[in-house]
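Deliverable D5.2: sample structural annotation.
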Amino acid sequence: MTSSTKTETINGVSLNFTLDGPLDAPMITFAHALSLNLASWDLQIAAFTDQYRVLCIDMRGHGGTDRNGGAFSIEDLADDVVGLLDHLGVAQTHFVGSSLGAMVGFA
């Protein structure tokens, strides 16, 4: 799946993400595992973009997203996701996380 990446500064971090699918469709957000990036969801993006607006995020320190200096916590990663959703005007999303991404979702 080829998606164009976008970047927004959220919580002082330059977050890299893709956003695909119909504008009026329900949202689904994918968060990757430790040491991976948003490309790990390419097959899911291809499978869901007909019926969903699909958001995939490179979490802090992964892929095209800055680390922004020192250490960070799961809560910081969760705040980044919520901040991006707020910035995009998303009030509700299905959330799918793998490993680290799942911990972010629980936070």
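Annotation notes: The beta strands are 5-10, 13-20, 27-31, 53-58, 94-97. Residues 37 and 85 are 18 Å apart (CA to CA).
The annotation will be released with the project's public dataset once the embargo ends.
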